[in-house]
Amino acid sequence: MVSTTVVSTVAPSTTVGRRGRRTTTSSSVRAVVITSTTVPVSVTSTSVGSRVVVETVVTSTSVVAGSATTLPLVAEVSPGQVQSVIASRESNVQDLSVPVFVDSKLPEPEPENPLVIQTGSAAELDIITINDQVVQLQDTEGFRLSVSATDADGVLAMVNTKGAIVVERENFITVTGEGFKPGSDVVAWLFSEPRRLGVIRVSASGAFEERLRIGVDVPAGDHTTQINGITVNNEVRSLNLAVEVIETIPQPTAVVTDTTINPIIVANTTTRNDTSFGTAMLLLGVLIGGSLVWFYLARRRGTRES
Hints:
By secondary structure, this protein is an alpha+beta fold. It has helices at 79-88, 263-305, and strands at residues 2-7, 31-37, 40-44, 47-51, 53-58, 91-92, 101-102, 115-119, 126-130, 134-138, 144-150, 165-168, 172-178, 185-191, 195-201, 208-213, 221-230, 236-246.
């Protein structure tokens, strides 16, 4: 079942929609469309997904999506710089130099309930989890955005029991996409304390792929990753997913067996073996000699008696 609610008022508060919860949205400059469903989507025998709660923000400005930036995209920005911008605005759905947010606060999606925020008209979007490893957002027009956790060898990590992506420190969040605006930028974030993970340039075919390292300074625990990009229709689309950052798991230390032979031990062993052999031969000689002497004396005794 699909339910749609459209609200346009001047009250100052907004509650972001979640599946199974009542949603109230208000703004003096935008209409908000919440589309949700709980119909499961079967992808393969090992892949099961469900439609995502989508918040579509229709802005009243004529600024082209992604054209204006407050902070530089080509240089590092501090969490403090980003938080200052968030505090100064009610929302952001167009400036890719800072995270997408509503009501001056960053999204906090539940693991089982990812969140998509976009400009433009309402869209039918699906989110699926593939093999309990890859979370993928897709539409019916060729758009696809996949997010996963991988190690240095590209091995995929499993999501946790709640559906959140699990990534070790010093490993990677890997993002791939198709159906983006060619030549545009895709910007990845991690928060609660906002950290820009990277800026990725989309190819001429509208595709991209990048590994984004999670540093050792990222606190272990629950976080949100946000991937923002521009569609071929020039609309900003923001995917927000729950992420669990964990401590680096120590790799088992391989037991190295020294197969080299100590020549001193060999020499000593050889000496001991030679000595033992010589001793044995000496004893054997004594026994044989003693036997011969005994035999000789016995014969002499027998000769005298006869």
